[in-house]
Design goal:
By secondary structure, this protein is α/β, with parallel strands linked by helices. It contains eight helices and 13 strands. The protein is 29% helix and 24% strand. The structure holds NADP nicotinamide-adenine-dinucleotide phosphate.
Length: 339
């Protein structure tokens, strides 16, 4: 569907947001062959300058004909906007890589993590979905273990940064921290409770089954990406007062027994992963050290001594990069044959 060219006209929808800004940076850093970059956001941002390759580009608002001539559009403006505007873009022969939850579980739309299921890109019909940030870093790690030992069950608990909610939540954590340290009242606008100096076992809306939407995204998206409905997953997702990078504790039960050393060896060979695991020297991944990095870092790998075939580990990745912008740009790179 996408014509092969030397350079491409690229659009970023939601360019002023936490993910959108990271997308612009990632396109520049990875030297994506951009002939022209067009940036879109809401009316609030119309005309705002955003820097790309030492030049300022003015933010535009979306119109019916906005996508004419654009080859690839990276969307990160929320599900409602994707629902309306992704089909408009596709009608203009533009390929959409969508970061929102709108199309992820649509059977007509591939849900892709390039390290895991790159072949699914071949059947797209104009839209390719980027998974949820907490799912992406988990499947990057699960895939090589599943290939080697078949995963039966995963118990995951997340420790997710506020940038996962967007720019307003980053501002809220900063403001609450300042206010509390100045003996002022902390105001809550984004989350139901204070996030500074606190932990909230609540990400996204609660569903009928008392899980949150975020927890069920981790369950359902993982099965779709891995192409295997037999993997049992249960998730608890938690917001922590960290600006950037999500951490996850994984407990994995396998069909074949794998030792911790074997898992270290498997993951060391796998794409997009860095094993950072020497606990006796205090070496394990922590969010502040992983922010700005591309890989998913894995540490605390150890056998689960409570079951016969189980492994525990701790994984950390930058939610704005691998969890969003980088994964989208990697999909675009594969699409144009640049990896
Ligand atoms: N943050 C993450 O780690 C992460 C990871 C994976 C996926 N995602 C998904 O990516 C999307 C964006 O997340 P974010 O964290 O970047 O949020 P954000 O910081 O709140 O940014 C939202 C963006 O959407 C734009 N927007 C809002 N209403 C619009 C409209 N009517 N028309 C056009 N643009 C509009 C905003 O423009 P203005 O600045 O003009 O309001 C802004 O650029 C969401 O769907 C989210 O679920 C986020």
């Amino acid at each position: 569907m996408l014509k092969k060219k030397g350079k491409y006209i690229v659009g970023v929808v939601g360019a002023t947001g936490a993910v959108g800004r990271e997308m612009v940076r990632t396109l520049e850093e990875r030297d994506f062959p951009v002939e022209k970059l067009r940036l879109f956001a809401s009316e609030r941002s119309e005309g705002k300058p955003i820097e790309f390759r030492d030049k300022n580009i003015s933010v535009e608002i979306l119109k019916e004909n906005s996508f004419e001539g654009i080859d690839i559009a990276l969307f990160s403006a929320g599900a409602e906007r994707s629902k309306i505007w992704a089909p408009v873009a596709v009608r203009s022969a533009c390929v959409v890589i969508d970061n929102s939850s709108q199309w992820r579980m649509d059977p007509e739309v591939p849900l892709v993590v390039p390290e895991v299921n790159p072949d699914d890109m071949s059947w797209h019909k104009g839209i390719i979905a980027n998974p949820n940030c907490s799912t992406i870093q988990m499947v990057v790690v699960l895939k090589p273990i599943h290939d080697a030992a078949r995963i039966k069950r995963v118990v995951v608990t997340t420790f997710q940064s506020v940038s996962g909610t967007g720019q307003k939540a980053i501002d809220e954590l900063l403001q609450q921290t300042k206010d509390i340290l100045n003996f002022k009242e902390a105001k809550c606008n984004v989350y139901p409770y204070q996030i500074a100096f606190n932990v909230l076992p609540h990400i996204d809306k609660f569903l009928e089954n008392d899980y949150t939407k975020e927890e069920m995204k981790m369950v359902n998206e993982t099965k779709k990406i891995m192409g295997d409905n037999s993997i049992n997953i249960t998730a608890t997702t938690v917001r922590v007062p960290v600006f950037r990078s999500h951490s996850e504790s994984l407990n994995i039960e396998t069909e074949r027994k794998v030792t911790a050393n074997e898992v270290r060896a498997i993951l060391s060979e796998a794409p997009g992963i860095i094993v950072f695991d020497a606990p006796h020297k205090n070496i394990y991944p922590i969010p502040i050290n992983i922010a700005g990095r591309d890989e998913t870092y894995v540490g605390r790998i150890r056998e689960d001594e409570s079951i016969e075939k189980g492994i525990n580990m701790w994984i950390v990745a930058d939610n704005l990069r691998k969890g969003a912008a980088l994964n989208a740009v990697q999909i675009a790179e594969r699409m144009i044959g640049k990896e």
